[in-house]
Amino acid sequence: KAIISILTVLFLSAFTMAPDHSRLISGTVSDEFGNPMAGVTVVVKGTSNGTLTDLNGAYQLQVKAEAKYLEFSFTGYDTKEVKIKNSSLINVILQPSIRELEEVVYM
Question: Is residue 101 pLDDT above 80, yes or no?
């Protein structure tokens, strides 16, 4: 019984020590003029895994290996979807939303 217990513990510990196959994605988000954008929401598409950009427009996000796309969103700007591929650095430029601008003009 002692051998079975030891083998069970070794077997279970092998699973907890296995790598989680995640990686760190980082980058910056700027507007159409190259100005850094603070407070942009960055999420792995279809999940709740996300973060916000800092005052310099920079972000870091740990993503699972199966993650395919990042979504970048900010009020008044078009949401941008970017394919992750093998990239660990993804810089994004957001464009103002025409619809939001029209709404502001007619108010």
Answer: no
